[in-house]
Design a protein that fits this description.
Helices cover 41% and strands 27% of the residues. It is of the alpha+beta class. Helix 7 packs across helix 8, helix 7 packs across helix 10 and helix 13 packs across helix 14. The longest helix has 38 residues. About 11% of the residues have low confidence.
Amino acid sequence: MKRSKNFEKRKKFIMELLGDPLYKPMRLREIASLLQLDKSEKKELFDVLDELCAQGKAEVDNKGRYSKVSGKRRDRRKKKDALKAEKQERGRKGRERREKDHEEHHYQHSHEALEAHEHTHSHEHHVQETHGNSHTYTETMHSHHGHHHHEHRGLNEIMEIIDHADMTDRAKSYGKRIFKILAEAEEKAHNVPVNQVHFHEVGAVDSIVDILSVAICMDDLDVEEVIVPRLCEGSGTIRCQHGILPVPVPAVSNIVSAYQLKLHITSVQGELITPTGAAIVAAFLTSEKLPEDFTVEKIGIGAGKRQYECPGILRAMLIRESGEEASGNDACTEIDTIIKLESNIDDCTGETLGYVMELLYEAGAREANYMPVFMKKNRPAWLLTVLCKKEQVSAMEQIIFRETTTIGIRRQEMGRTILKREKRAVTTPFGKVEVKVCIFDGQEYFYPEYESVKKLCEKTGISYKEAYHMAVRG
């Protein structure tokens, strides 16, 4: 790599700068600004920072901020990596030993004995079932000898896998939400902190893929509402890694309780709802009531292998409420209903209001904003406005009443016409950017997603305006 004449001096200054306690960790553009670099030298700076990170002299966090790594810190990291490698090696040897014992165990059985007891040597089966027309559940049966094939992972490890997956930001957020719900349920079941929860069955690679497949599917479908009238569960007991447990198992009971899911116990003997199935419903459920009249646009069906009194199928239907398409608009638009919540607040701090807005967006608000107003007695105040779906009103009002000083919230139902949209990933010279694409009068309009553009800017150091225009051009 060819470097400029004074860059080696600047490299030393970079290390001094990153290690100076007066400066917090800095992003690439902040370092470039302090060094007064021009555009041609920014690429050179990026390469040198990568080199320093590879040498362990500097590090970059998940927000793209660089900082110096001290000698003691490098030594601790090397020691930690060595311990991790040693632990992995011990785990590998243990698996090999158990597999050898397993093979010897099978070798000692005669063919007749194996046939007589083959149900005790079966391996893991995942069966998804449904009861009736609209109740989805999943059953997982475990064998006595299949336990050593499971991989145990903590929540942080799974979050790291999701962060590095080739998925959209929205699909990643869906996947993380499902695993967080599972972690909270296991935390309560085992009475340990959430960061100490280790997933067993759902920690295996195939189970992680199953959950992320659901997240990707929901992202691709771009549905706004998920309706599950109730969950139908079996009865009796089930054998798993923790022994024999009653149905519903503790994790399912915790999820149903925490998210107020409607549960119906049937006479079917066995587990019809797994923790994963319950977590998926809790993550996406927006309503328990079907529209009075609707049309079915698409149907998806998956058949299981277990035999029960009810059909062993999982069915999902993509529906549209009758009358939505008869709006008088062209094929590019559709009619939607939104609820507007308003409240005047004159005695909350700015920090509180900022925190409230974060909570509202996390709970699924379509929009939230503050407008300065003057109230009675000339008091300066803020008008809080929240847009949400009808089934989200209760959750939004709870946040506003709990976190602010307001004692009243106004509510208004509003109809609106919206352009149909789809999500795409466009390729720019610096990488991919997620965009929302709308079509009107035969013309496509591109709206780059803020978080995706921001991530590209932090990674490359280009300006937000430049990245945005490249994404719009497609």
